[in-house]
Automatic annotation (TrEMBL):
Any GO molecular function: anti-sigma factor antagonist activity
Organism per entry: Paenibacillus agri
Domain STAS residues, every copy: 3-113
The entry's keywords: Phosphoprotein, Sporulation
Protein name: Anti-sigma F factor antagonist
Gene3D superfamilies (UniProt xref): STAS domain
Gene: spoIIAA
Keyword hit for Transmembrane helix: no
Length: 117
């Protein structure tokens, strides 16, 4: 299985929906896609939806942390939402939720970023 990336811009927020697997095979492609979208568009904040992400390894964590640093350097915020149970466990073990929040869905994340749908 491979990874699929769907992106949507909404009022300065880049919503990235990942599905499939985010592992060492897919990490570089996902990283490049996200970086290009962040640099190309008027992106202040990033919402990462993991509703359909079945698997992630340490390479995926690296992708997420790298995008977090990129968004923070631009003065923005990043949020994660809809994480599946196995992915959420990995993110919890990594300590990621100490630096960025987890929301139940995209609407909650956008609401906290003060961007209404």
């Amino acid at each position: 299985m491979n990874s699929n990336v769907e992106m949507e811009h909404h009022r300065g927020v880049l919503i990235v929906r990942l599905s499939g697997e985010l592992d060492h095979h897919a990490a570089d492609y996902v990283r490049m896609d996200m970086d290009e979208a962040i640099m190309r568009g008027q992106v202040e904040h990033l919402v990462l939806s993991l509703k359909h992400l079945q698997f992630m390894d340490s390479s995926g964590l690296g992708v997420i942390l790298g995008r977090y640093k990129l968004i923070r350097a631009k003065g923005g915020k990043m949020a994660v939402c809809d994480a599946t149970a196995p992915v959420q466990r990995l993110l919890e073990m990594s300590g990621l939720f100490k630096i960025m929040p987890l929301y139940d869905d995209e609407s909650a994340a956008l609401s906290d970023l003060e961007v209404a749908l």
